[in-house]
Design brief:
The relative contact order is 0.20. It is built from 4 helices and 10 strands; from the N terminus they run E-E-E-E-H-E-E-E-H-E-H-E-H-E. It is 22% helix and 20% strand. It has 196 residues and is of the alpha/beta class. Residues 1-28 have low confidence and may be disordered.
């Protein structure tokens, strides 16, 4: 009996021969290659899934390239990993211990801004956060990340391009790739929302 095997989230960081530039290769347990095409619009579901190797208009960087940008202070780093909300139905007196966000040192955290569709208030929060990170200069380089195989950072980088930022970097390996390389990490707090 032939049982389908789950895909391994092994994304090759180059485009193998035979794949278009906007595609990436994903290998399953049998070693067969599949591709992930770059969509024309935002990703709006299954945010933790293999991602393409490209983002039209942005520069995709490896851990080494992201570290070089970080060391030289050549880009503002923005983490867009979602923040788990406190459950509304907790019994009275329950202590809510939020999971800490350990991320790239010096980054700002704009949680929940990588979804495919954003409420106006969340879009305003994103816009204000990117403006703060870049000192309002759309020529300043800005790098977006979250976790490996996470479309949140892809969406956020695409959104920054649409807002007119001209030097946008996308770091698909995210904070896990960064930490695995031994680069500095720190616990982040979310960027305050307007009025906080």
């Amino acid at each position: 009996m032939n049982v389908a095997r789950p895909l391994l989230a092994l994304v090759l960081w180059f485009a193998p021969a035979g794949l278009a530039a906007e595609e990436t290769a994903v290998s399953n347990q049998d070693g067969a290659l599949l591709s992930v095409e770059e969509p024309a619009a935002y990703r709006e579901e299954e945010y933790r899934a293999p991602v393409p190797v490209t983002l039209s208009g942005a520069t995709v960087v490896s851990t080494a390239e992201a570290h070089a940008l970080w060391q030289g202070g050549k880009a503002a780093f923005i983490d867009v990993l979602p923040r788990q909300p406190k459950p509304a139905n907790l019994p009275e007196g329950t202590v809510w211990n939020e999971k800490p966000r350990v991320s790239i040192e010096g980054a700002i955290w704009l949680p929940n801004t990588g979804y495919g569709k954003l409420a106006d208030v969340t879009l305003s929060y994103f816009r204000a956060g990117v403006e703060k990170a870049t000192d309002g200069d759309k020529e300043k380089a800005v790098l977006f990340f979250c976790l490996p195989d996470c479309w949140m950072s892809w969406n956020a980088a695409k959104r920054a391009l649409e807002l007119g930022y001209r030097h946008v970097y996308w770091y698909p390996e995210g904070s896990q790739g960064w930490a695995a390389a031994g680069h500095p990490t720190v616990e982040l707090q979310p960027e305050p929302e307007p009025g906080q």
